[in-house]
Amino acid sequence: MLRFNLGLPLAAALALAAVPLCAQARGGRGATAPTGPVGDFFQYNPTAKEAAEIPTGPPVVTQHQITLGGQTLAYTARVGMMPIHNATTGVVEGYLNYTYYSKDGVSDIATRPVTYCFNGGPGSGTIWLHMGAFGPKKIKLEPNGMSAPPYTYEDNPNTLLDQTDLVFIDAMGTGWSRPTKPEYGADFWGVDNDIAAFAEFIRSFTNEYDRWASPRFLAGESYGTTRAAGLSGYLTDHDMPVAGVFLLSTIINSESRAGDLAFVTVLPTQAMTAWYYHKVAPDLQKLSAADMSKAALDFAGHEYMQALYDGARMSAEQRVKVVNDLHRFIGLPADYISQNDLRISLGQFSTELLRSQHEMTSRLDSRFPGYLPNGGAESTPFDFSDANIENSFLTAYEQYMRHELNYKNPDIYYVLGGGIGRWSGSYDTVTNLEDAFARNPRMKLMVAMGYYDFATVYGAVEWTLAQMKISPQVREHNIMTGHYESGHMVYIDAAAMVKMRADMRRFYEGAMNAK
Question: Is residue 371 part of a domain?
Fold first, then answer.
């Protein structure tokens, strides 16, 4: 029986500074252990000896409808708290908050899939995928993803609800999810324990709502892709196979950002950013985004990788050529590139590319520039793209939950961090995904990536996919990728979201008709 295994051994503990770059992405800054100074009424303290009562009770149920493609779709929303039991003692060690949308009038649930959605960090609530991407309502944003008051929400024409029922889950310590005692929090915080807890949620949810016959999908963003890949193998190993996995802004193999390979895999994003700001060579500037990306990937994986491998063995002529080619692709001065031994870090690139404008690029979406403080001597204390989006989500989300879904939880909704402690384990779950494919060769995978995302750079994602140990048949027929002119949160860009939703429609159709 699949149960939450609190005795699961943890992988080697990692300090926050040592975990992959993704840990500092959406919600990652909440992964430090909050201590909660005296008088701090916002930060959760996992070392406290007592805990407040957790608001539970039956799910709050409401009825709704939305018009999609000229057709009216009626659906039911349920917001509740799912108890997570210790497999040995049966003790409820915490509750995971969820919002469940199901289409009304479905006579055969075997034809109606259910998709479990979650964000990442670790330390982020699932407010982003819920109200930014796939739910029936979305935060009202400008076409480029910028937000402006008054912050509100609207119908989401790109919701997945016409193809699948949806379950949005907040990880323990994020959103309204809480351990029943602070001391239990550590049992949930870590790569392996998190996977086990989510698997127990899915098992319990499947029982609660009688969804055993429904095709099962997983959808994760950022660290949520680490979780989704891990769950694909974990669930399959426990006789709950997965029909499809959707990964958005992926990090499932830390080797893709290790050593000199990190400079190779980040270069395509640097090149796309330089192309966006019209800093590349004139012949490259004329290319479309797709062709520019192809050229950058080819240069990074061949000439640039060879140069880093050769090092001092390069001839003077070879070194001059690769320096000049780097200048052509990433727009920084040749002398600067040479002085840094051909290796340009994200911090260097972000502060140097727009130095003449006294600006620097953002990390989650490099298309959003911001003021460069102190001439670049120090990096900005926040991400410009992230800060703009954060302003709008919680305000609109609380309005929506309280007034539309009639869910009035008095606790703090932890959008980012605040409610979690130290995270342990390695962000390497590609082997779980490989195992899922080996045991379930009908499973489908879609991997979506933004050209301007420096948190989970698409060059590293391409490398990870190319190294996966799967059969040629699976590689050819079961995996699809999507590249979008957006950043980490592809869905905040209106045009990119329309394109991604069209790709996802084909993904779901393929998974539901897999032979």
Answer: yes
Residue 38 pLDDT exceeds 90? no
State both tokens at 476. 């050819």
Claim to verify: residue 443 and residue 502 sit in the same structural domain: yes
**SS3 readout for 198-217:** HHHHHHHHHHHCCCCCCCEE
CATH of residue 508: 3.40.50.1820
* Number of separate domains in the chain: 2
Residue 375, pLDDT > 80, answer no
Residue bearing tokens 């390497």: 428
Over the stretch 460-500, which tens digit does the pLDDT of each residue have?
999 999 999 999 999 999 999 999 999 999 999 999 999 99
- Per the CB < 8 A criterion, the answer to whether 250 and 449 are in contact is yes
Pick the last residue of a domain from 384, 402, 422: 384
Q: Verify that 324 and 288 share a domain, yes or no.
A: yes
- Do 48 and 34 contact (CB within 8 A), yes or no? no
Give bridge partners of residue 446 from the DSSP assignment: 246, 480
Average pLDDT over residues 171-198: 95
Residues 6+ apart with CB under 8 A from 377: none
Flag whether 361 is in a domain.
yes
- The pTM of the full predicted model, rounded to 2 decimals, is 0.93
The whole domain housing 434 covers 19-255+389-512
Domain presence at residue 503: yes
Helix (H, G, I), strand (E, B) or coil at 289: helix
Residue 176: C-alpha distances to residues 85, 186, 413 (Å): 18, 17, 5
Q: CB neighbours of 426 closer than 8 A, spacing ≥ 6?
A: 11, 12, 14, 191, 254
